[in-house]
Amino acid sequence: MKDGTAKINMTIPLKPFEKTQQGTPFHISLEMHKNHNKGQESDCSYDIYAFGSLSWVLCEGSGNRRPQAYDKYGTIAAMKLAVEKEIYPERPLNATEACWEFMTKCWHQRCVLTAHDLCREMKYIILSTQ
Questions:
Q1: 0.85 surpassed by pTM
Q2: What is the pLDDT of residue 5?
């Protein structure tokens, strides 16, 4: 982009709460929920948050499980409430400390992190496991 930032655009906020194979989506940040239908199409924080959720799915390993933290949020209305309460997934059993720290950074620091920051963090994680 002209301003030197990169956008991942993993989440397109047209229908953010549309059901997925894993049920109600858990990749929606509070900002995305608040800005939905208010003319703000995208924001880097949406992608950063969603990338943390994607990392959770990858570390969990099966590709078909939802975080237990969302077990009682099976409907769209309930999941919106979980987003408003900022409920986050639990640590997957297979996640290393570095991967878990990466995920939580994506969720808690989503408004200040950039795609460049994520690349740097992932590179560090990869190099530290070799």
A1: no
A2: 47
